[in-house]
């Protein structure tokens, strides 16, 4: 289906993906932030989904909900599990129930943190989920709540997301390039940096499939830019895009930067199931980074 026939309701609309979806080619996008739509209020969620669906259908559009809302403060979640659970589990469940009741398809965004990070090959959607953080556990429980609510739903896991809005690794590296002569970045964690511009395009394509009732055969898919790199090499690539000397970035180990929540050493997600569902694979992460700077260079340099 053409994006011109879609209508998207995007809870979490002030986050990185939500902002990108709001500026997509979809003719009707309502992307409320948490102040406008509180997923912890089931009645409010039900009303929001129902009224949006009615508006979409009145305009001859097909409504789809994309849940981009999440508690993503990974370290803070270790000491505030209730706050993480209220959004990542209870809020996700309330949204899925509302979608089921109103027969609106749901795309629910999730994360590589549902895995342990011990693998040495890309994770497939059906691989055992063994989260090691509160954030990862709540996101996994949220996935299960969504898929058991009776809605036409698909979970999309992604990783290492960056874009023009919000705080992310690229914007942090841009700031540190201005502030420091050199810096150290961990070189023993690998993943696939994923630009919101490409991720949003993939999500819109998936939403279009739902709107045409071509639901994916698998309830969980992975969507990231292709390839793999370390945070260290990613940082050097950012410096190159900034026109700065990449040699100013030096490698270090995870042990040198302990965090309250352990980071997965391996966050590479396989895109085979995504392609098998007839969806367009995302380009290589390095070319995506160049495209991101060409598109949103001013915002990424802030």
How is the secondary structure organized here?
Layout: E1 6-9, H1 16-22, E2 28-30, H2 42-58, E3 62-67, H3 74-77, H4 81-102, E4 106-111, H5 134-147, E5 153-158, E6 161-162, H6 169-179, E7 183-186, E8 190-191, E9 194-195, H7 196-211, E10 220-222, E11 229-230, H8 231-242, E12 249-252, H9 272-276, H10 285-300
Parallel strand pairs: 1-2, 1-3, 3-4, 4-5, 5-10, 6-9, 7-12
Antiparallel strand pairs: 8-11
Helix pairs in contact: 1-7, 2-4, 4-5, 6-8
The main sheet orders its strands as 2-1-3-4-5-10
Structural class: alpha/beta
Just give the CATH class: Alpha Beta
Instruction: Tell me what portion of residues adopts beta-strand conformation.
Output: 5-15%
Secondary structure tally, helices: 10
The helical percent reads 40-55%
- Give the overall shape, derived from the CA principal axes: globular
Cα-based radius of gyration, to the nearest Å: 19 Å
CATH homologous superfamily - what is it? NAD(P)-binding Rossmann-like Domain
Q: What is the CATH third-level topology name?
A: Rossmann fold
The counted number of beta strands is 12
What integer is the average pLDDT? 96
Low-confidence stretches: none
Give a short account of the largest sheet.
6 strands, parallel
Going by CATH, the architecture would be 3-Layer(aba) Sandwich
How far apart, in Å, are the first and last alpha carbons?
A: 36 Å
- Return the domain count: 1
Q: What is the helix/strand order?
A: EHEHEHHEHEEHEEEHEEHEHH
